[in-house]
């Protein structure tokens, strides 16, 4: 089968190769992958910026396809069903945080950028009926991350004023859609005006270019935010602290800008703010997210679909932050 592996000896960092098809073991399903979506962790693996990297591992955390074979102890009624995969493994029993055994599909174990993948049966869910394969592939990791950040960690309520930073990436796009559908007043930030224009078309109240003096502008126009969802951190954190309303929540699911040099700690306690971390989500979070997406007919924003032999172009587009929504590989 064709697959895309991590290859640090290749100048592209990845390689399209042939590999033997996997065989499902007891309790596993074999899925013929139709579409697989990129996440930033795939690009970080390519750049050597992710822990425990191993050459030869098939990348990819998100995939959608058809069950082609089942292992022992798996019900055969799954055969032929269109499914997507929960990319998280071994979350554990504590809904508050993942266990020490938690891993994500695509590193250190083989992922979805392949014609076939075998996964545990409890990782497989029927694709929401209103989504096509490309949209189904775009949903799992980013949709789960956004859903948990907003609901469990952010305690989103109807009428909340919400700020989603970095609009353009998959999680931020989902967070904006989810918050809007929940009845929140949503604002976004981005470094690209065309992305802000798209967000305004979606129905957000305001869009701010973070390459300008946007914090003061947002404060003047919106007055502050009850919930802020962020993936950048770095020295932007103090601006978010300024923008948070008293009693507000700042949920952080990434740190692409690294650690802040200093934090305005006095404002955190004086404004009684909660700064909360969030990473993907539990199995119950995933199931709730799928039900919510199906009930509200949420459709992921797919930026572009690439054939497998153009995977480098897809990775480069993500590296340069030129996408709006998800980048998808067409597997067959």
What is the gist of this entry?
This protein is of the alpha/beta class and 332 residues long. It is built from 10 helices and 17 strands. The protein starts with a strand and ends with a strand.
Overall number of domains = 2
Q: Largest beta sheet, briefly?
A: 7 strands, mixed
User: What name is given to the CATH topology of the largest domain?
Assistant: Quinone Oxidoreductase, Chain A, domain 1
Distance between the termini: 11 Å
Which homologous superfamily in CATH is the superfamily of the largest domain? Medium-chain alcohol dehydrogenases, catalytic domain
Label the CATH architecture of the largest domain.
Alpha-Beta Complex
Pfam families: ADH_N, ADH_zinc_N
GO molecular function: oxidoreductase activity
Protein name: NADPH:quinone reductase
Organism: Cyclobacterium lianum
Question: How does this model look, in words?
Answer:
- By secondary structure, the chain is of the alpha/beta class.
- It is 28% helix and 27% strand.
- It folds into two domains: 2-139 and 300-330, Medium-chain alcohol dehydrogenases, catalytic domain (Quinone Oxidoreductase, Chain A, domain 1), CATH 3.90.180; 144-277, Rossmann fold.
- The protein has helices at residues 40-46, 133-138, 140-153, 170-181, 193-202, 214-222, 237-243, 265-270, 283-296, 311-319, and strands at 2-6, 14-18, 28-37, 62-70, 82-85, 88-89, 103-104, 116-120, 124-126, 161-164, 185-190, 206-209, 225-230, 244-252, 274-277, 302-307, 326-330.
- Strand 10, helix 4 and strand 11 (185-190) form a beta-alpha-beta unit.
- The longest helix is centred in the middle third of the chain and has 14 residues, at 140-153.
- The termini are close together.
- It comes from Cyclobacterium lianum.
- One of its GO terms (molecular function) is oxidoreductase activity.
- InterPro entries: ADH-like_C, ADH-like_N, ER, GroES-like_sf, NAD(P)-bd_dom_sf, Zinc_ADH-like.
- Residues 9-329 form the Enoyl reductase (ER) domain.
């Amino acid at each position: 089968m064709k697959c895309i592996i991590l290859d640090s000896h290749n100048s592209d960092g990845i390689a399209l190769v042939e590999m033997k098809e996997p065989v499902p073991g007891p309790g596993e399903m074999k899925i013929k992958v139709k579409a697989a979506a990129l996440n930033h962790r795939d690009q970080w693996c390519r750049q050597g910026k992710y822990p425990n990297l191993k050459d030869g591992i098939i990348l990819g955390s998100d995939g959608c396809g058809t069950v082609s074979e089942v292992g022992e102890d798996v019900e055969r009624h799954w055969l032929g069903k269109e499914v997507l995969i929960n990319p998280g493994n071994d979350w554990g029993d504590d809904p508050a945080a993942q266990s020490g055994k938690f891993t994500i599909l695509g590193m250190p174990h083989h992922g979805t950028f392949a014609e076939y993948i075998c996964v545990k049966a409890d990782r497989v869910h029927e694709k929401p009926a209103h989504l096509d394969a490309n949209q189904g592939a775009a949903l799992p990791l980013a949709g789960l991350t956004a859903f948990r950040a907003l609901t469990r960690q952010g305690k989103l309520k109807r009428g909340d004023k919400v700020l989603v930073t970095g609009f353009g990436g998959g999680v931020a796009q989902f967070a904006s859609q989810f918050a809007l559908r929940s009845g929140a007043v949503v604002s976004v930030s981005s470094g690209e005006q065309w992305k802000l224009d798209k967000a305004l078309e979606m129905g957000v109240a305001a869009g701010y270019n973070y390459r300008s003096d946007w914090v003061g502008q947002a404060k003047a126009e919106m007055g502050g935010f009850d919930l802020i969802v962020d993936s950048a951190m770095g020295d932007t954190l103090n601006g978010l602290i300024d923008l948070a309303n008293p009693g507000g929540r700042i949920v952080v699911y990434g740190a692409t800008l690294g650690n802040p040099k200093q934090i305005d700690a006095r404002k955190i306690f004086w404004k009684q703010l909660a700064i909360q971390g969030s990473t993907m989500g539990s199995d119950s979070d995933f199931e709730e997210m799928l039900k919510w997406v199906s009930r509200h007919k949420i459709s992921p924003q797919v930026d572009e679909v690439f054939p497998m032999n153009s995977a480098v172009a897809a990775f480069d587009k993500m590296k340069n932050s030129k996408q709006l929504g998800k980048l998808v590989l067409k597997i067959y």
